[in-house]
Amino acid sequence: MSKLRTMAGRVGAPVRALVRRSPRLNAALWDVQYALGLWGYLDETGDGGVPLSLIETWAPHPRILDLGCGTSANLALSRGRYRHYHGVDISRRAIETARSLDRADASYAVADIRTYVPPDRYDAILLREVIYYLSVAEAADLLRRLPGLLTTRGRILVQIYDVQRSREFVAVIRGCGLDVTTWQPPEAGEAGPGAFFVLTPAAVAGP
Ligand SMILES: C[S@@+](CC[C@H](N)C(=O)[O-])C[C@H]1O[C@@H](n2cnc3c(N)ncnc32)[C@H](O)[C@@H]1O
């Protein structure tokens, strides 16, 4: 499974760099990838319970914004443990699948997260396996904007499945005035949920 992830990443990287400048082309490319089932394996991947368990350490019964949510099928959200879930993805197809899950207390939007303005403030903003589909400048821009969308107890949770690549993001994250308050190192093995970074606006972080 990890080989598949790596392969999809390597094959897709040059193409993504070319098309991401155009939101329309980017959306079309992601739709095609979902139609071809290239990301179907994600739906069974990792431990989808980890994000909610982590979020509950700082915000029980949270209001969650999931940017680049994909189908969100791999995210375990048990009814009653969250207040609201809002999933956003550039792929219409992925959002159709997400909607078909018929989750309680959930809403969705088809949008480009580089420019999307969500309707609320959130206790947790998730960026799961999406940050490296943005350029470094775009990722930095987004990370600087997200604190303004958090509640007072809110934090940002970045999940990076490809653990080898996760370290390179720490510098980007710190450069955006965010403290990495938690880094849950990955467990040994190929099919784990990857690395998690909990990010807190620097002014809010504890000692
Ligand atoms: C590898 S998938 C991860 C999906 C999901 N977060 C997960 O972990 O299972 C990356 C997702 O990011 C979405 N995406 C990529 N660039 C985006 C953008 N600029 N705006 C919104 N979504 C984007 C893709 O459509 C895709 O669903």
UniProtKB/TrEMBL annotation:
| Entries under Gene3D superfamilies matching the protein | Vaccinia Virus protein VP39
Could you state a single Gene Ontology molecular function term? methyltransferase activity
Asked if Transferase is a keyword of the record, the answer is: yes
> Residues in domain Methyltransferase?
64-154
**What GO terms in the biological process aspect are recorded for it?**
methylation
Keyword field: Methyltransferase, Transferase
- Return the protein name: Class I SAM-dependent methyltransferase
